[in-house]
Amino acid sequence: MRSYLLLLLLMITPCLWAQKKELSQARSYIKSGKDFDKAERLMTDLLKKDTANRQNERIYLTWFQAVTKQYEAANEKLYLRQKYDTAAFFNLTRRLFLIAGHLDTLDATPDEKGRVKIRYREDNAEMLNRLRPNLYYGGTFFVRKEQYPVAFDFFESYLKTADQPLFTGYNYATTDSMMPQAAYWATYAGYRLQDASRTLRYFDVAVRDTAKARFAMQYACEAYGWLNDKGANLAMLKRGFADYPDSPYFFPRLIDYYNAHERPDSALYYAESALRTNPDSQLFLLAQSVALLNLERYDDCIRVSERLIAQNDSLAEPYFNIATAKLNQVLELDRRNQPRVYRNQMRKLYMDARPYMEAYRKLAPNEHRKWAPALYRIYLNLNMGRQFEEIDKIMRKL
Questions:
Q1: pLDDT tens per residue across span 305-344
Q2: Closest CA relative to residue 64, chosen from 35, 98, 87, 89
């Protein structure tokens, strides 16, 4: 047993000696007023060499001092408008916050008797509170550089200070008006990275930035799409529409969702809700027209579509909707199985549908699969031989 303890001491002693030597060398660099980066490197090397060193308060304290000196030197150069790497300056700021966080955790660790004596928090927090805006400006700097992973890290560091024990008493969550903007830019950076987790992480704070809340909601919708969370995506689309009915993002996707899921009643509900905010919107009227067509409310569909054409006769879809509504009315009569009774009425509907479907063809020539089958039926039932032959050839190629 004595031999084992002696061996252990022999193993530990050189490590402690090396640690002491490197700490002493780092302090010498700091006192010399130069080579602060070398002092930092000595400390980071110690942390890499042995995980046990991560519990050594002195290493973090020395590391913090080394980076503080680098920051002060860089800040002086910027103040004097001397050439300096702006990215490096901001990175120094963020490192100070990371190091101080580790140091504060160790500083607040109870000793063997359960006592806690915090020595560095007050001074470090006071110093870093003055530097904290640089985390935000660093984030915006890296956004402009399109370095989104780095930008996100800066905004996250800024936001996390609100919950760090190091900054107890500063109450950033309630006193800092820049928190929502920082959260928005973090959300934006996550979105540009197509990273759902980072996009959504600070979304609840980001939407408090009223100037950009609609964009934050858009990014959240996209993030839920990446996660294939259809329920959350739909809920966010509804929320976005409720707050921003005129947004070109939420309403079309909401209507597309209900049309794809064969929920025309819901599509009509949202179309009519939107029309209450903007009764003349062609987008909202078109959505209403489609929903009415899908609900087999053909006369209402025709009425809304004619209103759209009166507003803008170059829109293709209203012509298609009117023609389709009339052709569907033919089918309703045909299902009654009384051809002699309804022959003239059915012919008139075909005649009425024809100019609208032909207009749709002119406005949307590439939509063969929509207009060709319809015109085939119209020309066949109206005995229009030349036109029927032309459409027949097109149908054979589909």
A1: 999 999 999 999 999 999 999 999 999 999 988 888 889 9
A2: 98
Give pLDDT tens digits for 160-212.
999 999 999 999 999 999 999 999 999 999 999 999 999 999 999 999 999 99
- The residue whose two tokens read 């049309």 is 259
Structure tokens at 73: 């030197």
**C-alpha span between 91 and 349 (Å, rounded):** 73
* Sign, CA torsion 360/362/364/369: positive
Q: How far apart are the first and last CA of the chain?
A: 90
Alpha-carbon distances of 105 from 56, 108, 121, rounded to whole Å: 11, 5, 10
Coil, helix or strand for 56? coil
DSSP 3-state assignment of 110? Answer: coil
Cβ–Cβ under 8 Å, residues 267 and 237: no
DSSP element (H, E) containing 265: helix 264-277
